[in-house]
Specification:
By secondary structure, this protein is of the alpha+beta class. It is globular.
């Protein structure tokens, strides 16, 4: 599972035929990533310490649709994961979302 630390800048506005989730899925494919099992979007971040979408409205170039996301893949996906428009400027940066089980395994491996 990956969550955005900085919001994804969508390459186009959602429409009736192609919603936000569809556009995020296409952005993942354009970045060479596998098809996700699920995508959840929100104007607020899924990771503690990240800023909500409203904080970026004045600094994102152009009048773009921006969104945070939680992306679940079936298998392991190796990072870094950066998606969407302006991903080369730091937008759409995704971090792995650690679960308690993952944290325990990580700590156990470090001992």
């Amino acid at each position: 599972t990956w969550v955005t630390a900085t919001p994804i800048v969508l390459p186009r506005y959602p429409k009736r035929r192609e919603g936000v989730v569809d556009i995020v899925a296409r952005a993942l494919a354009n970045a060479g990533l596998p098809t996700p099992d699920s995508i959840e979007t929100s104007p607020v971040p899924f990771v503690e310490g990240a800023y909500p979408v409203a904080s970026y409205r004045q600094i994102v170039p152009g009048n773009r649709y921006i969104v945070h996301a939680r992306i679940v893949f079936e298998g392991r996906v190796r990072g870094p994961v950066m998606i969407g428009r302006h991903r080369h400027q730091g937008y759409g940066l995704c971090l792995p979302q650690l679960t308690k089980a993952t944290e325990i395994r990580t700590l156990a491996a470090a001992l």
